[in-house]
Amino acid sequence: MSEEKNPRVLMETSMGNITIELFRDKAPITVRNFLSYVKDGFYDGLIFHRVIANFMVQGGGMDENMQPKKTKFAIKNEATNGLKNSRGTLAMARTAVVDSATAQFFINVVDNAFLDHRGKTPELFGYAVFGQVTDGMEVVDAIRQVKTGNKAGHGDVPLEPVFIRSVKLCEE
Fold first, then answer.
1. What CA–CA distance (Å, rounded) separates 157 from 2?
2. Rg (CA), the chain
3. Residues 69-121: pLDDT tens digits?
4. Which pLDDT score, from 0 to 100, does residue 171 have?
5. With contact defined as beta carbons under 8 Å apart, do 162 and 151 qualify?
6. 3 has pLDDT over 70
7. CA 161 to each of CA 15, 39, 81: distance values in angstroms, whole numbers, following the listed order
8. Hey, which of 8, 25, 111, 171 has its CA 20 to 30 A from 32?
9. Cα–Cα–Cα angle for 76, 128, 135, rounded to 5 degrees
10. What is the pLDDT of residue 147?
11. SS3 assignment for the chain
């Protein structure tokens, strides 16, 4: 049997398209979780609700009114997979609790080594990288430049919403 290719998704945003390769071999739980949300159309119509120009762009959890969308259960953090939070990688957002990621993800716009797994304690555990932008990094760079402010108690929110129109699995 041939080596199974990594799945790819096309994320259509209001600022352009982003193609992402998902590292199923390195982050099987995370990729399975992300694809289950993709199949459900969960991300369609949500926004990038947190944008920090020299850090990352985050989305996958809120609508344009900053209302959180109900998620499935939290998953195991696969930050020990050896992948680095380098520019263009996709990682799971979470709370201070190590295994708390659900649907929100972020795209690193610079190398964020401080987010990598460095130890077993919660503050060192890191954020699980599970994908890489293969096409459309210029769209990510455009998103990171949008003006942000405060909205509904959240900071770093794009003043003009950046929508995730859809996320679909690419057919090979």
1. 44
2. 15
3. 999 999 999 999 999 999 999 999 999 999 999 999 999 999 999 999 999 99
4. 80
5. no
6. no
7. 10, 24, 33
8. 111
9. 130
10. 98
11. CCCCCCCEEEEEECCEEEEEEECCCCCHHHHHHHHHHHHCCCCCCEEEEEEECCCEEEECCECCCCCECCCCCCCCCCHHHCCCCCCCEEEECCCCCCCCCCCCEEEECCCCHHHCCCCCCHHHHCCCEEEEEEECHHHHHHHHCCCEEEECCEEEEECCCCEEEEEEECCC
Chain mean position to CA 147: 20
- Please give the single-letter amino acid code of residue 159: L
Give the position of tokens 């929100």: 104
Measure Cα distances from 52 to 44, 57, 123 in Å.
22, 6, 21
Neighbours of 137 (CB within 10 A): 16
pLDDT tens per residue, range 36-81: 999 999 999 999 999 999 999 999 999 999 999 999 999 999 999 9
93: Cβ–Cβ under 8 A, 6 or more apart, which residues? 58, 60, 61, 101, 104, 105, 106, 127
Residues 6+ apart with CB under 8 A from 95: none
Total-model pTM: 0.96
**Nearest-5° angle of CA 26, CA 12, CA 117?**
25
